[in-house]
Structure formats: C-alpha cells, structure tokens
C-alpha cells in the first residue's frame, strides 16, 4: 500500500525536495488511476449516484496532502482523491464509499466523495462546500482551547464556493480568531458549467485575501513544483502562527463536473492554453528531466498502483451492502430521544 | 428571593460552565456585554476565554460549534434572535443534524433560540421556529414553559450528545418567576400535565402553556375542567402522555404560537387521530397564529397570536358539541 510505503503526513517541509516530489507524484498517479477505475465502474453501472473526478487537479491536491501532518485537519473538495490518499485515506476506503460497502466509513448512508473520519481530523463534506470552512475553524478553535498547538487546518474549495455566504463568514471568522487555517481555492475556471466571468469580478480570487486580512498566495495549479512550494509555504506560515492563508491555484478541470457531464461548455481555447496542461504529464516530464526517476521506474509505479486499485476493487465488490433490516434508522445518538422510542 | 426565566437560563449556563470544562458559549454580544437580553451577564468575567463574542455570522457560528463538538467540546451557541438563525439554518440542519448519522461521531451542540412574540417585536424579532427544526431528523427540539424547565432543560441540553435546539420564549423572560431553581426534573422527552381536568385536553408548549392555563381558569368558573398538557419537548414528542390525556377527556385542542401550516399542532392532531381515533368524542381542533408575518403594533400582535381569550373561545365551541 502506497500510504505505508510513503508514511503519509510525515514530511515536515515538502517545499521542493526530491522526496516530496516523488511522494506527491505517486499520490497523483494513484489518484488518477483510481479515478479511471471509478469512471469505468460508473460506466459499468456498478456505482449508484454520481462520480466526481479530479483530473487536472492532482498536483494541487497532492501538494495539500503531503504538506499536512497526520495530526492536522483536512476538509477536501470533490476532486481531491490525491490529497485524501496523501493524507492517509486508503484506496479501499475510497472504493467502499463509492460502491456503498457497509464496511466503509459512511456504511452506505452517504456515498461517493462524501466521506471522512472526523475524529481523525478528516472532515466529511456536505454538498454545500463553503460550509466546511467554519467546521474546520471549529476544530482548530477547540484544539487551541484544549491547549493543543501546532495544528493546521486545510480546507479545499473551488472558485464557485467563494461566492457563498459561508465562505465570507468563515474566512472572516478565521481571520478574527487568527486560526491556523489554509484555505485552498482550486480555480478550475468553471463551477459546474458556469465560467468564472459569471462567478466573480475581481482580477484574481487571491485579491480577496486583503479584504479579510489574511495571507495571499497564487500558484500555477498545473505545476507540481510550484504547488508544493506555495502550498507548503502557506501551511508553514499558518503553523508558525501567522494566521489564515488563502491559496488560489489556477488550473483547468480536465473532465466534466461529474462523469454524467461531457463538459461541452469548456472553451477550446482554454484547453489549448497553458492552463489546459495535464499536471500529471508535467510532473512526469519534470521528474525525468531532473533525473529523479526514469521511464522504467515510472512504469513500475504505475503498474503497482493499478495492481493496488484492482485488488481493492475486487475486495470491495465482495463486501456486504448495507442491510435495511439491520439499520436502526435513528438519527439521534441518544437512543431514547429518537422519535418512536418507548420512554 | 425569586428567579426569572431569563435568570434561570443564565444560571444554567453558569452551572454548565462551572461543571464541565468542555462547555463554552459563542454568540453575538455574549462576552463582556452579557448578551442582548443579558442571558450571559458576567459569565465572560467569571469564565475567562470561554464566553466569546462572535462576528455577525450565524452560519460560521454554528459551523464552528460543529467543529468544536467533533473535537470533543460542548458549545452553546446563542442566536441573538431565533429569527436570525435562518442564516445558520444550513449548518444546523445539514451539518449538525446529519453528522452522527453519517459518521457515528456525536454532535453535542446546543443552539439557544430566543424566540416568540413580544409586543413591538415585529416580523423579524418574533418568529416561532420550532416546527422547521423538528421537521429535520437528527435534532432535539426543546420548548420550556416554566422557570424550572428553562433551567433543568438547558442543563440537560448541554449534557445531551446530540444537537439541541433550545427554544427560549422571550415573552417569559422577565415576568415568569419561581422561588428557587429545581434540584430534580422530568427528563427531556416527557410531557407534563400542567393542570388536571376531565372535560377537554389542551396540548400546547412554551408561552402558550400560560395562555392555556389562564383559559382553563376562565372555563373553570363556567364549570368546565380543562386538562393542560405542556409538551416541554416538541421533538421527541411525548405521544403517550397526550394520548392518555385524550383518553380521559375525549376532546383535543392543540394550541401553538407558530404559523398554522403544518407544525407541532398539526403533528399532534395527526398522531392522535391516526393512533387514537376512537378516543375522540368530537373532531380535534387547532389554534395557531394567523398566516401572516408577525405584526409590530400591539393591537395587531395580540390579534395575531392565540390569547387566553381565544383559547377559551375555541374550547367553549368544542365543549358545546
């Protein structure tokens, strides 16, 4: 398993070294291949509901994951398979949630990208993504109250979520409380089909940071080296007590909003622009150029990743589905306070 | 020596802060100022760093509370007015209310909603919100009607491992008094017979309990014995106590200060007619506020909400049947 091999979250300063590049690249690759498998399972009718992929966003996502420690807080967005894996989620858990296994983290009660392990600092998103920022604030706030220091909270959102009231309230709240929050915005040019011209009117979303009094960082989201440096730097600043940091990465989503979406609305000029570069290929070329890996090594990593994913998919498809007759159908944890319970 | 409903709320919070280091209070103006209604008076001074002013951000207030609850703390969120909590509605119903069911991690958040009408309050400082929260799975919704319940139910709310919507009625804040704070109480989820009777059951909650009791006194002078059931918690709703009362009286009148479409009164009648149709001697009735925003002027406001006189009139009609 890649996580065991690479000890997720153990890299203090991933800024620009060989080791962190290789680790991030391997999580990007694993995420891309996992996404390919999910797309195949979706087309085969094996997955209920939607499938949401992170193609084109893996460099940014992996950079977030490898910049965090296991004891940090992570609230991913829907295109963060790479970051989730780097933070410590297993391929098996990801597949369990998509395939609705009763052994998965959400036990079939919630699916696909809606997964996490809150007690481990891995927050499960609700669909109103901007709403996750203040929840991460709450975890950081509570840790400070408990005297725990050195924790960073990373929350990932897209350009669309910056238009929500929750974004404004929570970023302001984090700034007022001087919380170690790193808010990463993947500006992938479209919120579902809506282009950024219909989403915001400032030049860059990073311009918003000044208005909240938080640190601002911009980065080319197609460039792994730049992402590692920028995200790693923002995480370090937050950890060093410099308050919330807003990171805005420019990139292009190389797939539909979900697998149901052919993304016919994406401007071909954008696809042909530097934003349309495939970050995985860019990273591979970089590793080869640096001679940090050769083609044979890349092929071995790819084949290992495929093997891990295929093995996990075979295992998860044999796991039991949730049983409606075994469900307690109780939404309140205090048993006797559920409706219909005999007092 | 007497204590008001509002002071009981303050005392319960002081008690919770004293007893449990995991408790903190977060809300607008709750710090040194002591809250818009003074429900947190002096608490910031008594418990430094644990009673904190928030920005005017109801969404982020509740979101922060959920995160803190995940981390093992027990936040109390004060909404300045229940009406403003609509801005934090998403966090309450989609984040707090679903967390345990989705992840098995409990979400012990108490949201205090100063709610209900007062003279001069108007459309945005008077609303009754209990029904919309009760509609959502995963929430416990409390509506204390007495000083004793205001105290004991708030303590219990903080102790419960689930998100609790604690609806405190502003109309009761100052004029409702008790001699002392209770040392024991009915558990949350149990209704209370506020007055015994055999001719008709009025099921109600919060401030309307007092209108119903006044109506019962008025009707007693005419020879009628009215039973008043105080639901105490609208979710879970104690159907058994309601059903037992209707079994005794054969007549059911439900009274609520909230709007008439759906809601607690409709739920009680639905349950009694489906589970206890044979107990009813006459068709059950409900009395609610009118289906308009809550008016500002006292002349309009007193006509908008059910009053003791209106409750007595509704009961009289049923008693003649």
Relevant terms:
heterodimer; A: alpha/beta; Rossmann fold; 5-stranded parallel sheet; two-stranded antiparallel ribbon; globular; B: 321 residues; alpha/beta; 7-stranded mixed sheet; 5-stranded mixed sheet; 11 helices
Could you describe the 3D structure shown?
The complex is a heterodimer of chains A (343) and B (321). With 343 residues, chain A is an alpha/beta fold. Chain A has a single domain (17-257, 264-318), classed as Rossmann fold, CATH 3.40.50.970. Chain A is built from twelve helices and seven strands. Chain A has helices spanning 2-6, 18-43, 58-67, 81-87, 91-99, 131-145, 165-177, 208-212, 224-239, 268-272, 279-290, 295-317, and strands spanning 73-75, 153-158, 181-187, 190-191, 194-195, 215-220, 245-250. In chain A, the strands form two sheets. In chain A, strands 1-2-3-7-6 form a five-stranded parallel β-sheet, with helices on both faces. The longest helix of chain A is centred in the first third of the chain and has 26 residues, at 18-43. Chain B has 321 residues and is of the alpha/beta class. Chain B has two domains: 3-178, Rossmann fold (3-Layer(aba) Sandwich), CATH 3.40.50.970; 192-320, Rossmann fold, CATH 3.40.50.920. Chain B is built from eleven helices and 14 strands. Chain B has helices at 5-19, 43-46, 58-70, 89-103, 130-134, 147-159, 208-220, 239-249, 263-275, 298-304, 308-320; strands spanning 3-4, 23-27, 51-53, 74-78, 110-115, 140-142, 164-169, 177-178, 192-195, 200-204, 226-230, 233-235, 252-255, 285-287. In chain B, the strands form three sheets. In chain B, strands 3-2-4-5-7-6-12 form a seven-stranded mixed β-sheet, with helices on both faces. In chain B, helix 4 (89-103) links the parallel strand 4 and strand 5. In chain B, helix 3 (58-70) runs parallel beside helix 4 (89-103) and helix 8 packs across helix 9 (263-275). Chain B is globular, with a radius of gyration of 19 Å. Chain B starts with a strand and ends with a helix. The interface between A and B is large, with 47 and 54 residues.
């Amino acid at each position: 398993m890649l996580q065991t091999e690479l000890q997720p979250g153990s890299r203090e300063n991933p800024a620009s070294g060989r080791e962190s590049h290789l680790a991030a690249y391997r999580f990007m690759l694993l995420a891309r291949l996992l996404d390919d498998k999910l797309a195949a399972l979706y087309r085969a009718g094996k997955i209920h509901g939607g499938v949401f992929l992170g193609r084109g966003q893996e460099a940014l996502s992996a950079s977030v994951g490898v910049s965090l420690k296991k004891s940090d807080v992570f609230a991913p967005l829907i295109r963060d398979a790479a970051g989730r894996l780097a933070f410590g989620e297993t391929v098996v858990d990801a597949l369990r949630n998509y395939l609705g296994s009763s052994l998965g983290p959400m036990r079939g009660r919630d699916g696909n990208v809606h997964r996490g392990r809150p007690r481990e600092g891995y927050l499960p998103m609700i669909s109103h993504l901007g709403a996750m920022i203040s929840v991460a604030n709450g975890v950081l706030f509570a840790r400070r109250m408990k005297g725990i220091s050195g924790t960073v909270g990373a929350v990932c959102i897209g350009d669309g979520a910056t238009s929500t009231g929750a974004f404004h309230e929570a970023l302001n709240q984090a700034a007022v409380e001087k919380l170690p929050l790193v808010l990463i915005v993947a500006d992938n040019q479209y919120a579902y089909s809506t282009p950024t011209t219909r989403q915001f009117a400032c030049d860059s979303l990073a311009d918003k940071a000044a208005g909240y009094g938080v640190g601002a960082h911009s980065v080319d989201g197609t460039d792994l080296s730049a992402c590692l440096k920028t995200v790693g730097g923002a995480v370090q600043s937050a950890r060093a007590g410099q308050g919330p940091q807003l990171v805005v990465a420019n990139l292009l989503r190389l797939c539909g909003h979900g697998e149901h979406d052919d993304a016919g609305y994406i401007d071909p000029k954008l696809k042909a622009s530097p934003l349309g570069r495939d970050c995985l290929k860019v990273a591979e070329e970089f590793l080869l150029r640096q001679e940090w890996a050769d083609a044979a090594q890349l092929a071995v990593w790819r084949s290992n990743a495929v093997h891990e994913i295929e093995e996990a998919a075979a295992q998860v498809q044999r796991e039991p589905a949730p049983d409606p007759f075994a469900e307690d159908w109780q939404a309140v944890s205090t048993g006797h306070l559920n409706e219909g319970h005999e007092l | 020596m007497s204590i008001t409903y509002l002071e009981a709320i303050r005392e319960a919070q002081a008690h919770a802060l004293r007893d449990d280091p995991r408790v903190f209070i977060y809300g607008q103006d709750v710090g040194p100022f002591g809250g818009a209604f003074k429900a947190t008076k002096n608490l910031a001074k008594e418990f430094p760093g644990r009673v904190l002013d928030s920005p005017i951000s109801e969404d982020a207030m509740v979101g922060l509370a959920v995160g803190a609850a995940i981390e093992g703390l027990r936040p109390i969120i004060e909404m300045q007015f229940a009406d403003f909590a609509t801005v934090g509605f998403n966090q309450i119903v989609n984040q707090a209310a679903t967390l345990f069911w989705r992840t098995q991690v409990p979400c012990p958040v108490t949201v205090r909603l100063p709610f209900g009408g007062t003279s001069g309050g108007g459309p945005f400082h008077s609303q009754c919100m209990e029904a919309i929260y009760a509609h959502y799975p995963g929430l416990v919704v409390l509506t204390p009607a007495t000083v004793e319940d205001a105290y004991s139910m708030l303590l219990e709310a903080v102790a419960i491992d689930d998100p609790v919507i604690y609806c405190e009625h502003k109309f009761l804040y100052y004029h409702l008094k008790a001699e002392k704070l209770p040392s024991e109480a009915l558990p949350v989820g149990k209704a209370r017979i506020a007055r015994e009777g055999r001719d008709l059951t009025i099921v109600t909650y919060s401030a309307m309990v007092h209108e119903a009791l006044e109506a019962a006194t008025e009707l007693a002078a005419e020879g009628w014995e009215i039973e008043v059931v105080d639901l105490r918690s609208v979710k879970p709703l104690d159907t058994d106590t309601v059903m037992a009362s209707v079994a005794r009286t054969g007549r059911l009148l439900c009274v609520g200060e909230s709007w008439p479409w759906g809601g607690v009164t409709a739920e009680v009648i639905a349950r009694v007619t489906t589970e206890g149709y044979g107990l009813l001697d006459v068709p059950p009735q409900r009395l609610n506020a009118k289906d308009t925003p809550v008016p500002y002027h006292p002349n309009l406001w007193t006509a908008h909400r059910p009053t003791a006189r209106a409750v007595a009139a509704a009961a009289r009609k049923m008693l003649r049947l």
